[in-house]
Every structure is written in C-alpha cells, then in structure tokens.
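Example 3.2
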Amino acid sequence: MASVLVVADDLTGANAAAAGFASAGLRAVTASAAERGDVVTEMVSRFDVVVATTDSRHADPRTAQQRAREVVRAGWPVRLVCNRIDTTLRGNVGATTAAVLEEVAGLTGARAVALCAPAHPAAGRHTIGGHQLLGGRRLEETEVARDARTPMRTSDVVGIIRQQAALAARVLDMAAVTGPRDELVAAVRAALDGGAELVVADATTAEHLDRVAEAAVAAAEGTGVVWVTSDPGPASVAMARALGLDGAARGAPLLVVSGSATVLTRRQLRQLAGERGAHLHRVPTPAGGIVPDVDATTALLDELLTAAGQDDVVVLATALEDADVRGAAPADADRIPRELARAVRRNLETHAVEGLFTTGGDVTAAVLAELGSHGLEIAEEVVPLAVAGSVVGGPWDGLQVVTKGGLVGDAGTTVACVDHLRRTVELNRRHVTSAESRTPY
C-alpha cells in the first residue's frame, strides 16, 4: 500500500505537493480524482505517495467534502492522510479539513487530529501568531484580498477554517515552536489533552516545520491519536519524515519477461542469474502443451513479486532448458506471447516493478499492447539492437523499459541491459508521475 495519501484541491498544488515528497525520496504520483475517486485505488499499490486532485477549490463546500471523502476511502489504508490546501488559504480549507478528519476517524476508529501548518517558507508564505503572511504581509493586505472567487478578508488561520468547520482549535505560537523541544512537545500534548481537533502551528522556516512534526508525533505517543495534516505540502513532508516514512524510496524488483527460445537467450539468462542473482522461472503450461496457462502463470508471478525485494530481478521465461524448446503450430505461436502478456498485465495491476526488460519481439509487442501503451519513447541504444526507453500512454505511462530481440548480442548482453535498466530507474525514482485510470469511463 502507499504510505501517504494526499487530497489536493487543484492540479498545480497537487503537482507541487508531489514534487516535495519526491524530493524526500518517495515515489509520488498525481491522479485526477475529480470525477472518479476510485482511480486512487488503482495507484496505491504502485507508489509511496498518491496525490489525488479533486478540482474542488472553487466548488461548493459540500461537493468539496464529498470528493475528499471519496479519495480517502478509495486510497485507504495508508499511514498518513494529508489535506493539501492553498498557500493563501483560498477555497474550501475548513470544509475539506473537517471531511478528511471525519473520514480518517471513521476508518481507524481512533481520534483524528489535524496538524495545520500552512507555511511554505521556500515560497515566501509564513505563519506568525496564527496569521498567514504572503511576502511578509497579511493576506488581507495583499492582492488575494481582491481574488475574484474567494477574496481573503482575514489572515487568521483558525478564523478562516471556522468559516466552514466548527473545529476545536489551538495555536502553537512562535515562542513554543522555537523553544526547547520538551516544552514544544508539552504544548502539543496540552492541546491534545484540551480536546483540540485542529492544531495550528507558526512557522517561518523548514526547520520549524520539522520541529512541529516531530513534537506532534512524540506528543501523540500512547494517546491513540492519529494525525492528519492540512497544509500546502511542506508540513506533510515533515510529518512523513517524523513518522519514518521518508528516506530512499522503497524500490521494487525488476521484471524480465523472455519469450525467446533461442540458445543465445537461454545463455544470456543463465549469465544474468550467475552474475546478478536473478531468479529464473519457467512459464507454466498445461501438461503436454506449450501455450502458457494464464491463471497458473499469474499465480506464479504473483508469488514471485510478493516475495521479491527491491534489489531482486525476477525472470519469467518460456524456455530455460533445451527440453523447453518444442515446435509450435502457427496458432500456438501467436498465442504464447499474448497469454504471457496477459499474466504480466494482471500482476502489474497489483504489484510495483521498477522496470521491465523484455526479450523477443513478439512478447515485447504483446506486453506493450496489454499495458495499453501507445508505444515506447526511445532514450538510447544500450547495445546495437537493444534499446532503452519508457512506456508512452496508458496506465503504465513512464514505466522504464529495455527491450531486445532473441538473437541480439552476446552472452553478457542481458546483464548489460538489466544493469542499464537499474541505473535508469534509480535516476528516475524521484520523478513525479502523472497516471490515468486503466478502467474506461
């Protein structure tokens, strides 16, 4: 499951929030959930952070709440739920904060409390004395006071939230935030003991946000409180760090799919196993048959990917030994790559893989078709006739791929291709992906 679920009220804010998590080493995706919250369900098994855009900043409060609730339900369970709000507090800040709190409380059966730290120091948004400042000025003194749809008449964070939600609130002022750690923890605990549903924190630096998040986690120990965040993104990243959800992105295995029965391919796979510890597995077929058993192959690959670690290479091949090579009628020859591709697609719906290496032209085409790809964006040639790129279009848009023919290269070529794939996915791990539903409207 994903570690973090973010409900964002607009696309640009969603992208910014996702970028913040990606910079913290988490694999992040943005997904449009304005019309269908269930798109989130399809993403939580594939990414560390799912940022769902509800396009509700200027919707009526009831609609905004409903969309937020749908996203939380669709993405559950996760370790942290964040309500991404505008840096100038425009829109349905109170309504969505209340909705996310209520939904998390209902799903966990625990007391949910929102940490609202709306500062975004890198963007010149600060919170002092419970008031939001834009470029050092209160919101009501800036151009957002004249916003056509949501003019900001006050900078009082609690007051803005209470325009839409009657939440019991406490403010952690700058003296508490910058004071000794034990006193800050005590201040947060006092707010919790006093029945706070919302804790608003002052901050002017990223360090302040880290201090507040760490204190919040410490103060909640043993209380049964589940924290939710309501902020533009930086405080949510700080909370993820405080909860131990950050660090180097948890990688997923590489998947190798071989539909080639050539002597060269089999030699390459054996060398991959010997030099890189790849796990080789033959595709299951019915007794006496040569066409993959889709259900059995799906089950085998499910077992392999479930057990695989981030440094593993899982290999699924139609032929590994001489005995596996048998003549095929034209009809069977056409079915072999298609059935293998079906099993691969079924597993990629529920398992994350960092990258995909295919060998054999027919199986490559079949897998790309099953994944709903429009093609490959070619990045470079790893060795002559072996290319690296990424999937274009479809639910797996951006998936890193290396592919080659069954008669390409020498004994070490597959090792070189898999090594290239590993390097590429490590470089791309922190990029934010924008994903679409694989389920048609």
